[in-house]
Amino acid sequence: MNRLDRSPARLSIALSLAAALLGATASAPYAQVSAVAGAFGVAILGVGFVTERPGGITLGCSVVAVSALYGGTTGAPVLATLFGVTAAIVSWDIGTQALVIGDQLGTEAPTTQLELFRAAATSIVGVSVITAGYLVYFVSAAGQSASAVLGLVLAVTVFVALLRRVTPVSD
Amino acid sequence: MNVKRGLLIVGVLLFGLAVTELVQPGFSPFPTNELFFSLIGAFLLVYAYLAFRGRNRDSSNYTATPDVECSEPTAVPGRDIGETLEGFPGTESVYTGVFSTVQEGLREATVSVLTRYDGLDEETARESIVDGTWTNDRDAAAFLSDGRASPDSLRGRLSRFLSRRRYQRLQIERTIDALARKADIEPPAENTDLSLPIDEELKTGTNDRISRDFETARIENRQLTNRWSGISVVALVTIGSGLLTQSPGILLAGVAGVGYVAYSRALPLGTVDLSVAREVSDSDPSPGDDVEITVTITNEGRFCPDLRVVDGVPEKLEVIEGSPRYGGVLRGGDSVTFSYTVQAKQGIHQFGPTVALARDLPGTVELELLLTADSTITAIPTLRPVQEKIPLRRQPTRFAGQMPTDSGGEGLEFHAIREYQPGDGMNRIDWNRRARTGELTTLEFRRERAAKVVILIDVQPSAHVGHAPESENVVERSVGATQRLFPALLSDGHQAGIGVLGPRDRFLSPDTGSEHRQRARKMLATDPTFHRPDSSTRGRAWIRNLRQKLSDETQLLVFTPLLELSTARVIRRLEAYGYPTTVISPDPTSRVTPDRRLMAVRRRLLITDLRQAGVPVLDWQPDEQLEEALKREVITR
């Protein structure tokens, strides 16, 4: 009698840990606290995979994200902070999917194509976000225009309010 | 709609103003003092808090998939100690009654055991229980004698000191072990390792998801997984904090959050339309053969970025190679194929629907579809007939004093000589006499005296049990044994038939011939009576119906686990009606836990009682070949 091995998908675990590591090292050179916190976050992430708990994944990635944000307040370049937070989000997405794919399909089934595709999609969104963010910073920093930033922030807030009312509809 | 449109317009306006501000500084009227920034930041944090409060409280969810790779686990009898005790035979073959405590129940059970195996009468037995002299085990004696004999063992005292409940559990276990020793039940083997926990319930097929209408593909369920449900709160908090702390890094990190908010909500899934085709390498295998299943999924709708498939492996079959699951990306119009191997088992096995789970790219919506492709595997075994002598009873009619049995092998019992008639077989001619005197004579054997034997298989729900979750259940073992006994009975010259013990209507009248043999073989392999437990209670009329079908000079071979007193009673009734009955009982009891051992004791009592009533009972152990059990019985006769 062979029970299905429902442990998390291995490829996705590797990708998630890699993304989290990248996020942690982005702001590590700029503040010691960031470095320690980032390493801690990656460790929690690893434990989350071993114990197969999605809460662990979320917590680990959050710690990495917060460590990057902290680096932002202590003088790390904006790009590093942006990269760190985005990498944490990417890591979270891939990591939680690793658990779900493992639980629904098991480790025997061929899921490589699926995992890579999803990881690529999230990463592309991440890259776009970083690019857009940095562009905003660059343009607004160059113009020293605080009011433009404020305007952008208000616009973004309205868009968030709009998006919260949208649910993805499928046919 | 109006709110959304309004928000969209406002958002676009603000965005436009901000951009023109970048290009043309001083154009827009946004104030830029620090206080204002902090106010906006605080406002955003409040908004985030409200959003958090009003969030969808469902945690992230997704569709769970059944364990199709396993075969259905067998129930192991004796799960509930109270039920086991209630079914114990009393001293006069009636139920011992209902108990309010396990202690009372065990006391009655002990009386039953002592009166049968220690030769005591009821009163003496009860006295020895009260005195605690019935066993050497101190804890057991103390438990049943209600504290008159106090526990002596160190473990007992320590246990009682630490935890009342655990101590009682220990006492119960000790009592059961003492009973088991008296009833000759062996303790569990040293390294019994079950691959499944003994009490687990497992979903091994997809049949509980059968769609109610007959379309080939149907969307059964659509759910929001709530994966990204917290991201907008995170984004708002980050932007707000960024404004408050005047930190551009944090502010821009908030932009990252917003990007993902957009991603999670703005990519709807296209039309999902899938179909499945299944190819079975051999739909007519022999039990034990490997069958390869190839599944092809075709996407007849739009691009599907996340497709997960679980095939509907029949509940009783096990997957031995490959995986019946697949996960991948499927473009519109494309197909994907995967295959796996199952091991065939006796019976008709129908595939359940294929479960397909489709998700959108960010993973926020999950659709469950059931795809059907009718496939069936029918496996009818060819088993070799039993080689040993079948222990039939003496017929109490015309052939008084003669045993109408022969073994189909060594030692055909010679009966008489008669003159040779044309057409007699060459192997029946007495060649010795021919060599001596030149006469041609034919030997006549006992098989001329044919018996009518009906094999009754117990198919009541209580018979669908086995000694381990991965073992065969009693009905399967009985059917397998009948498959082997039936041709042996026929070739010995008897008329053989098949019936059931239980409220079902299945009867094959005793007859001979190869067509009859084929009919029996097919019936045993494919009739659902022998493969699906029937929980309907049709009352006791079935015994009467059975009796009507049995003709007068019939012998019965009954296959039953002999776990219920009611079954033992039915057997004694049949014997009393004039049908000599022999019982072959596949042992379904486990020794692994004390509760299960108690069931073994109960069964042993029922066997003893039946034997004492004159009905021979073969106790067929799970790891034994049928021949060994038959050989044992013949020797002990």
The gyration radius over C-alpha positions of chain B equals: 37 Å
- Strand element count of chain B: 19
Uncertain runs of chain A: none
Number of helices of chain B: 17
Strand line-up in the sheet with most strands of chain B? 16-15-14-17-18-19
Number of helices of chain A: 6
* Largest interface, chains and sizes: A-B, 81 and 101 residues
Strand content of chain B: 15-25%
Distance between the first and last residues' Cα of chain B: 89 Å
SSE succession of chain A: HHHHHH
| Low-pLDDT segments, ≥5 res of chain B | 211-216, 396-404, 406-412
Judged by helices, strands and strand pairing, the structural class of chain B is alpha+beta
Q: What portion of residues of chain A is helical?
A: over 70%
What can you see in these coordinates?
The complex is a heterodimer of chains A (171) and B (637). By secondary structure, chain A is an all-alpha fold. Chain A has 6 helices and no strands. Chain A has helices at residues 10-27, 32-51, 54-73, 78-105, 112-143, 146-164. In chain A, α3 (54-73) runs antiparallel to α4 (78-105). Chain A is globular. Chain A starts with 9 loop residues before the first helix and ends in a 7-residue tail after the last helix. Chain B is α+β, with helices and mostly antiparallel strands and 637 residues long. Chain B contains 17 helices and 19 strands. Chain B has helices at residues 2-23, 34-53, 81-86, 102-117, 122-131, 138-144, 154-162, 164-182, 231-245, 248-265, 431-437, 474-491, 514-526, 541-549, 565-576, 594-612, 626-636, and strands at residues 217-224, 274-280, 290-299, 304-312, 318-322, 325-330, 335-343, 347-350, 352-359, 365-371, 376-379, 414-419, 441-445, 452-458, 495-501, 507-511, 554-559, 581-586, 617-620. In chain B, the strands form 5 sheets. Chain B has a 6-stranded mixed β-sheet with strand order 16-15-14-17-18-19, sandwiched between helices. In chain B, β14 (452-458), α12 (474-491) and β15 form a beta-alpha-beta unit. In chain B, α4 (102-117) runs parallel beside α8 and α8 (164-182) packs parallel to α16. Chain B is elongated and about 135 Å long. The relative contact order of chain B is 0.11. Mean pLDDT of chain B is 80; it is low at 211-216, 396-404 and 406-412. The chains are: A mainly alpha (171), B alpha+beta (637). The interface between A and B is large, with 81 and 101 residues.
